[in-house]
Amino acid sequence: MARRINQESTGHGVNELNERKRRVLWAVVQDYADTAEPVGSRTIARKYDLGVSSATIRNEMQDLEDEGYLEQPHTSAGRIPSIKGYRFYVDWLMQPAPVSSEEEHMIDHMLMDHVSRQEEIFRNMAKAVAVLTHTLSVAASAGQKKKFNYVRFLPLDGRRAILLVVTDQGDVSNAVVDIPKGSSFDEMQLLADKLNHFLHGREIDHTDEEMILSFQRDVEKDLTPYLSVFQALQRAVSPQKEVYAGGASQLIEQPEFKNVEKMQDILNLLEQRDMLESMLLSSSDQPIAVHIGTENPMKSLSDLSVVRAQFTSGGRVIGSVAVLGPTRMQYSRIVGMMRFMQQRLDLLLKGKT
Q: Which of 14, 167, 175, 237 is the most buried (most CB within 10 A)?
């Protein structure tokens, strides 16, 4: 059986179900994921070679229901997996599926085209995963650490100037700043020259107080009047976290979301960028984590399953991609795809391809 991929939130172990029950549960999960229809014992006997009769399978399914792994939505219907059943399947029964050659080509092409632009990588990952899995996908980039190149002031009028900040990647940010009272545009240009010498080539996340004090000691000048300039500089060099989404139209095709109200809830969720960013970029001990239905910490996700993969470089989380879909999603295929993307991006960032 597969090893657990997500150690979070379960109190049951692999020995809790015997081999036959595990095989029956696996078959129910597989069939329900494919058909979105409750599964009966005769269907399992006909489609899956379990080596036992339909009556035996029916008894095992009854036991699995009694133990909370299956549910019976209607009296005359077959069974569907419960959240407990899905959790056991993901942790112990599932084998991540290999990607197809077409999927591999698509992912490689997308990564190679944007390996130098981190934000574009995650934007395109969201699109690719949505297309390949027919689910809703969201991605977030933690933002790249930028190296400072230079700043320049351009005169705007007698009281204001335009601050230009240029990074090593050629990104240009601008802001309108006030010329401090008692100062002049020429003095600001002199300040810019000294700042360029002080910061050039540095990898900085933000212009914190310690850096400003160090620069103040270096130039032997009170920089308090220039606080707005440093605030504008901080906004320019701070990594910009972005959230991308793709596949809302794919999700509409799923039977679970034919209900207009449910689909509206999903669309409202996509508007909550801060919440999505928190979900995607929060730290995790698992490179790939699976949360099923009510296991999700956010109530708005209680009808969904979320498979989240984090991407790292140099021990730092640089971004995350998550698939949001019905609880009967193709976990094996999605986890396999996430692992492949992690491995490929890691190789690209290390320059080993």
A: 237
What pTM was computed for the model?
A: 0.75
Of 23, 152, 148, 31, which Cα lies nearest the Cα of 88? 23
Identify the residue whose tokens are 């500089």.
233
Q: Residue 304 contacts by C-beta under 8 Å, 6 or more apart in sequence?
A: 266, 293, 296, 324, 325, 326, 327
What is the maximum alpha-carbon separation in the chain?
92
Calpha distance 39→21 (Å, rounded): 15
Instruction: Give Cβ neighbours of residue 219 (< 8 Å, ≥ 6 apart).
Output: 191, 194, 198
Cα 176 to its chain centre, rounded Å, is 34
Could you tell me the end-to-end alpha-carbon distance of the chain, in angstroms, rounded to an integer?
Answer: 32
CA atoms within 13 A on the CB side of 313: 18
Give dist(CA 301, CA 167) in Å, integer: 38
What percent of the chain clears pLDDT 70, i.e. is strictly above it? 90
**CA pair distance 196, 123, nearest whole angstrom:** 32
Contact indicator for 295, 83 with CB cutoff of 8 Å: yes
Mean pLDDT, the chain, as a whole number? Answer: 85
DSSP line for 127-170: HHHHHHHTSEEEEEE----EEEEEEEEEE-SSSEEEEEEEETT-
